[in-house]
Amino acid sequence: MAQQNRNPSTWGPCAGDVLGTYLRSQATAFLRGMRQYSPSAASGADAAESSDAARSLRGAARRISGSLATFRVVTESSWADGLRAELVWLSSTLADEHAYAARLARLMDALHRLSGSPELPAPRGSAGALTVGSARAGALLERQLTLARTRAHSATLQALGSSRFHAVADAVAVLASEVPLDAVAARGPVAEVLVPLAAVAETRLSAAVSALPPISGCEAAPSPYNADHDGLWHEVRRLLRVHRYAREVLGEDVTRPAAAGEALNRHRDAAEAAAASATAARTPRIAPATAYALGVLHADQRHEVEAARADFQHLWLREPAGHTAVTAG
Amino acid sequence: MAQQNRNPSTWGPCAGDVLGTYLRSQATAFLRGMRQYSPSAASGADAAESSDAARSLRGAARRISGSLATFRVVTESSWADGLRAELVWLSSTLADEHAYAARLARLMDALHRLSGSPELPAPRGSAGALTVGSARAGALLERQLTLARTRAHSATLQALGSSRFHAVADAVAVLASEVPLDAVAARGPVAEVLVPLAAVAETRLSAAVSALPPISGCEAAPSPYNADHDGLWHEVRRLLRVHRYAREVLGEDVTRPAAAGEALNRHRDAAEAAAASATAARTPRIAPATAYALGVLHADQRHEVEAARADFQHLWLREPAGHTAVTAG
C-alpha cells in the first residue's frame, strides 16, 4: 500500500504517504456522510442530521477533487482526472438545494432588517404602503426560491439514484482503502514533490488575486451595482479553496485561508442574492411597491458584495500570503 | 462707532471691535449679494452670476445670524434676536430653490452611475426592462423636483418683493455701518468676552457629537436605511456651522470645521435625495420597473448617508477638536 513506499534517502514520509493518508481520510468522511445523508428526511432532528451529513459529504468531495487537481502527477493521472470530474458534478448537484435555501434565508433576513426601520419605505408620511411592499417582495422571493429549491431537491434525488452516482461512490470506496499513486512521484520526498505542487496552486491564487480590479471601497463606490467583476472573484474563491486543501494535505495551518474563504463565501452568497432580487423584480404584473422593495434589497445585497470584498482584502492582503512565510517562534 | 470703544486696560482690540468688524464685513457682503442677485435671470452667464450672488447672500445671512447667536450678549440682545430670526427665515427661503436643483442633479448623477452598469437592472437576461426603469425613474424625479423648484422660485420672488424682506435689508444696511453693541460687554477684552462665548458654542457642538448614535460603518451596517437618526446629524451640522463662524469672528483657522461641514452637507443632501426617491416611489400607477429603480436609488443614497457619516467622524474625531488645541509652530 501507498504508505509503505518510504523513500530510504529521506528522513520524513514520502509524498505518497502524505497524500494517501489525506485522501483516505477524506474518502472515509465521504462514505460516512453518504450513509448519514437521507435527503427525504422530513422531521426536525433527522433533517438537521441529514443537512450536516450533506455538508460533510460536499466538503469531502471538494477536498478529494481539489487535492487530486493540485497533486495530480503524484497519482495515476487518468484515474484522478476521471474521479475529479465526477466529484465536481456531484458536489455541485448536492450544493444547489442548500444554496437556494441559504439564499432565501439571507434575503428574508435582509428584508426583515430593512423593513425593521419604519423609515425605509416612506420617509415622509405613512409607512404602510411599502411595509406591504416588503412583505410582498418576501412572499414573491419565497415562492420563486422554494420552487427552485424543490427542483434542486428532485435533481438531488435523481442524482443519488443514478448509476453515475453509484460509480462515484464505488470509486471513493476504493480510494478509502487504496489510493492509486504514480509509482515514481509517490516515492519522492514531500519537500521535493508535494511542496512545489502546492506552491503552484498558491501562485495561481496570487495571480488571480493580483488580477482583481481595485475594489470600489465603502466611501466613494463608483459602481457598487456592477456585477461585471463577480466572475473574477468567484474564481479567486475557487483557487483559494484549492490552495487551502493543499495546505491541509501538508498539515499546515489553514486559519487564514479559511477566514478569507468565509469572506468569499459571503461574497458569492450576496452576489447570488442580489441577482435573485433583480430576477424577482422582472416578474410580470408585480405591484410597484413590491418592485421598490426588491430594488432596495438588490442594492443592499450589492453593498454586502462590496463589504465582503473589503473583508477579503483586509484578511488576505494585510499580511504577506503564503505558507512559505517565516513564522517566528 | 464701535471700533473706537477700546478698553484702555488691555493691549489688543476689545470684543466690540472684533465682532463689529466681522458683522460689518458680512453685512457688506450681504448687500453686495443682494444687488447682484437677479432671480429672474434666464441666460447662462447672468444666471450663473445670480446663482453665485445668491450663494454669497445666503452665506452672509448665515454668518450674521450665527455670530449674533453665539455673541448675543455682546450686542443689543433684543435687536440681535429680531434680526437673527428674520435672517434664518430669509436664508431658508433662498436655500430651497437651490436645494431642489442640487437634489435633482445628485439623483440624476446617481441614476446615470447606477444604470451605467448593464448588470444593475437584470443580472441575467436582457437588461432592457430596467434601463427603461432607470430612465422612467429619472423622468419622474425630474418632473417632481422641477415642480418643487418652480414653487420654491415663486416663493423666493414673493419673499424678495415683500415688506418683510425690505425690513431685513434695511436692518442689514444699518449693520453695515454701525453695529448695535452692548456698551459694557463690547468694551471687554476679546479673551474674556468672545473666547468664552465661542467656547460655549464649541461645547454645544461637542455634546451633540457625543450624543450621536454609533455609526453602522461600512462593513456590517445593521440598518443603513434607517433615517431615525438623521435629525441628530442635521443638528450637528447646524452647530458645526455656528462653531465655524465663531472661529471666523476670532480670526482662527477654519480648515477643519469647513471640511467636516462639507461631509455633513453631503450627509444632508444624500438623506434628502433618498427621501425624494422614496416619495417618488409612492406616486400612484408607476411601472414596477420604475419603482425598482427608485428602490435601488433610495438604498444607494442611504449608503451615501452612511459614507458621509464615516467621513465626518474621520475628519472631526481623528484629532482632538477645538481651537484651544496647541498648535506647534
Automatic annotation (TrEMBL), chains A, B:
Record-annotated CHAD domain positions: 19-321
Native species: Streptomyces erythrochromogenes
Record-given protein name: CHAD domain-containing protein
InterPro entries on file: CHAD_dom, CHAD_dom_sf
Pfam families cross-referenced by the UniProt entry: CHAD
Stretches assigned to coiled coil: none
